[in-house]
Amino acid sequence: LLGGTRRELERTVAQQFPFLPAGCHVQLDQKATEIVLRSLREAIPSRWPAKVDELRSLRQVHPDIDLAGFLDESGLELDDVYDGAKSWSDLQAAAGAPVLSEGPSETELRRAVGRLLHIDDERIATYQHLLAATTAPTVDEMPERERRLVRMLVAAVTGRAITKDTSLQEALELLWTHPQVRAELEQLLAVLDAQVDHLHAPLATHPDVPLQVHGRYSRNEILAAFGIGTGAKIAAWQSGVYEAKDANAELFAFTLDKSSGSFSPTTRYRDYAISRTLIHWESQSITRADSPTGLRYRHHERDGRSIMLFTRLRADDRAFWFLGPARYLRHEGEKPMAITWELTHALPGDLYASFAAAVG
Description:
The chain is an alpha+beta fold. Helix content is 38%, strand content 14%. It contains 14 helices and ten strands.
């Protein structure tokens, strides 16, 4: 009935089941809620020392146990392994398992691996092929689409270990000086490959943009995919809408559930799925319908500009679901403008149910 990971189940119980299917209702009193949450948390090891003990114990039976085997035997999930800026390599080292030599930025790169838990599309096979090479590939010899995929990986993993002047090739070579991180990435990608649960559609309008409709991407990955900027490091994306002028596209990234304290009353716009093909989205509170911004949105088809929608349920979700291209259908009011976008690709049933319920 509830689906999702154990971590998501805990949140669902604590919040009194906000995203149940239509017609379903569950209510627990305070004491029952406390009991259920305690049982969920105590069912499997959740504290770091307990995870270390679990791996150490499993290694006595399976000395070469890998990440997939550990998850299967322990009942833990990827979020549990990567909780608290830890990594699979950290867990192996703490449990006395052999690990490969450390690189110059080992701590930073190990922490960054946890930023890739959302990967669910062609990135998996591309990165597996890439990481199998004994030396860092030459990016100048790659087609544009593959080069952008590499930048998506490198920007996520190298993070603070590089500067704005670091080239893509230099960042890739830095990754190759960390053999344990590369080994962990290979094991993680194998786990992610087995967890893919949505069909994806290619972005036919932009063949060089390595995004798949209904895949999940971080802001940095989105900008890298559209070829924004140069070098390995990607500039921060602060606002909800990014005008990608070189790609002649508007990139919309918005959060559906605004109930958290990170949203002020002036930024709690009502964004939600009206149907599987219609999305209700509100502009900034200062946007007028006849302003340059408002006209950009309304006349994007006439001007040959693409609208790309990305959404996530909560502010603490690192990655956004790519809803694909959309077209302006209509709007109501202004300051903010309440725009209805029509999607080219219909939402899968489960995403529609979640996105429609986010404002319930």
